[in-house]
Amino acid sequence: MASYQDVKEEKYRRFQGMVKTWIGCLGSFTLSLLGGLILAWWELNYHPTNEQQWMVPVGLILFVTPLTVSLSLFISDFYLSSTHDYSPSEKPFHDPEKLDTTR
Question: Which domain holds residue 64?
């Protein structure tokens, strides 16, 4: 049976993981929003005269990269969770002792 301190530490670890996830999502959303704003600014101010064209690739990179990374992380997590019957706390990431190679 787990002690009160163990339960408290586990809840704190889960909370830390949730905070890190939310910070990552917020940063990704902000970066994508910045890329979209750069593209919109270029469209409104510089597109008629075809000036400041460096803003287009920079805006596209900032806009698309967080979406691509988020999609790849979602797909890899989906396939990892569907191919193994590990619970989230038992996934063998970077822990060779927990990795079961006999399956």
Answer: 55-81
